[in-house]
Amino acid sequence: MTNIEKKLQQLASQNPTSDWKQKVEHRRVNKAWLDKSFETALRILDALDEKGWTQSRLAREMGVSRQQVAKIVKGKVNFTYESISKIEKALGITLVTILQADEEVIKKEKREFYQKNVLNYGMPVKPVNKVTSAPTYKSEKVYLRIAS
Questions:
Q1: Which of 78, 109, 114, 148 lies most in the core, judged by the most C-beta atoms within 10 Å?
Q2: Where exactly are the structural domains of the chain?
Q3: Domain 19-91: which CATH number of 1.10.10.10, 1.10.260.40, 3.40.50.300, 3.40.50.720
Q4: Dihedral angle at the C-alpha atoms of 132, 135, 96, 66, nearest 10 degrees?
Q5: Is 131 exposed, middle or buried (0-12, 13-18, 19+ CB in 10 A)?
Q6: Closest CA to 55 of 38, 64, 136
Q7: How far apart are CA 36 and CA 42, in angstroms?
Q8: Model confidence at 140, in pLDDT bands (50, 70, 90)?
Q9: How far is CA 72 from the centre of its chain?
Q10: Over the chain, what is the mean pLDDT?
């Protein structure tokens, strides 16, 4: 065995094995809530940007550590209602809306359709939640609450 081969073998034995397979499996198994956590993180980043706040400021307002906020904005947190409530209160936003049985959420793309076609038939449409007109982290979404 040459010196180079010995050095490579020594370096390989010193480095811990990669856990990429476990990470991929975790992502596959938890995809549903991880996707929602990522979307929530984007909304939080938008709100921080709108307010001009840092993650440290959000941590102070929520009464949690800076590290916890870092996890939140990475989209890797399985939120509890307690943490969602703290975020909503600190940022003055709504992250979770529970709709009534006769309500539904639609994306902005369908807004014009409802305004042109549904409103003509007397069905009221009320805006629920607007994201800024120039969001930095995700595409603009406007949700409507449709009441029959």
A1: 114
A2: 19-91, 108-146
A3: 1.10.260.40
A4: -120
A5: buried
A6: 64
A7: 10
A8: very low
A9: 8
A10: 80
Residue 9: both structure tokens together: 């073998």
Nearest 10 degrees: CA dihedral of 16, 17, 18, 23?
A: -100
The distance from CA 74 to its chain's CA centroid, rounded to whole angstroms, is 8
- Looking at the chain, the whole-number percentage of residues with pLDDT higher than 70 is 74
Q: If we measure between CA atoms, which residue out of 86, 83, 148 comes closest to residue 118?
A: 148
Sign of CA dihedral 14, 15, 21, 22: positive
CB 46 within 8 A of CB 92: no
Convert the pLDDT of each residue in 73-89 to its tens digit. 999 899 999 999 999 99
Structure tokens given for 58: 């959000």
Count of CA atoms in the C-beta half-sphere (13 A) of 18: 5
**pLDDT above 50 for 148:** no
pLDDT exceeds cutoff 60 at 135: no
Q: Span 14-38, mean pLDDT?
A: 87
User: Distance of CA 64 to CAs 29, 47, 50, 72, Å?
Assistant: 28, 18, 21, 11
